[in-house]
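Q: Convert this sequence to structure tokens.
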Amino acid sequence: MNDRYPDLYSSFQWFVPSQFNIAQACVLRWAENLHEGRRAAIYYEDENGNSEIWNYTRLSETCNQLANGLTKMAVRPGDRVAVVMGQRPEFVASCMAVLSVGAIAVPLPARLGPDGLGVRLRDADARVAITDALSGPDVLQAQVRCPALTQIVGLDFQHDNILPWRSLLARQATSFKPLPTKANSPALLFYDTRIGTKPLGVVHTHHSLIGNLPGFVASQNWFPQSADIFWTPTDWTKCNGLLNALLPTLYFGRAIVATATSFSTTHTLEILERYRVTNTSLEPDAIRLIMEQAQAPRERYHLALRALMISGKSLTTDAFKWCQQALGVTPNETFGQTESNYVVGNSHLMWPALPGSMGRPYPGHLVTVLDSSGKPCPANVVGEIAINRYDILGYPDPSLFESYWRNDTAAHARFHDDWLLTGDLATIDRQGYFWHCGQSTSPLARTGQYIEPSDIVLAREQRQAGATTAHSGDNTPL
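A:
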């Protein structure tokens, strides 16, 4: 297989305009053109199997109505507005409306419950919350502990203390002129979704979307192609659901599938077949369940998959090969964190994907492993994965987070000079592939010890040998 990585990585240059707004780039601009506006943006299927299609025009008009409503509620640039919903078109319209008025969207999942929601809503000083019937009761309970939360907009449920979604939209015009927004203005505030943890909000700017595009394009085998349709079961309120899936898909004017049903093997394969999904993102646990419960999925389901991105953990060699044989796609593993997402990974059409490897740094990102003194480790030496503020040409990497919410001290502690320390350990082989080796609590992180030979390196060599066999017949055109 022809390895095009060196040329792609060395020739890449960032272009980040001084003004950039995610809502304008992902939704509003497509609706400005009559032809583009008619294209499907979201295929939505609720928990009862009812489906509908939202095109870019409808999505844009709903966004504009909400933006007008938020303006009349005196929401100003920099204010925080929580969006507490599952995968559905109204979630997208709500986030886009918040960004259109220059406010900061705070996506939160319903599963946090009233206590978890209350802690995060209070920490963010959210002015408004937009929610649906599933999340609404918990948001109402949380409101009593959130003095800044003065307005709740509710979709598909009634309560004396909420403003109904339909009533709000009925009063507003479908046109709205978004506020001019600097690319480095705060746009998104993500919180850890683990129950019982002290919240630490991660602030991303509008240009964070630009920072995620190289990894998205590469991990999705050069997205977009003309018939591409994306789907992931990952919650859109998570960073890797929003910045790794939803927003890049809309940025390129393609359609994404939204599903209200929780993950199951049968449902996953039915969705992939029914909507002719070409591109998806799954976690290793989901692949494991599909392997166990549907050993030959292409014998029963007519799949159109051409790209599969894996996030969270590495696949086993067996799972990697199963994806190739049973799903017909070579999985592209990726690595990133909420603070700097989508920075390392694979794109098997452009460079070989090795089973168990995290991949190589995506174009635009300068990533290495550092020893305990902050110096880059030689090949095959364990160190802490670190991401530089700047790329190889000296330009700022737009994928890095702006700061922790109202906690610059904690943000500063994550850096060693210009290197963002991830807390994950890895080695880098002589071809530039990263191999995960655990967390930085390991003694190896303190010593920078050379680990050849070892179980880690032996396992890597076995994976590489398997990958060579797997790719020997790969004649996919590049």
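The mean pLDDT is 91.
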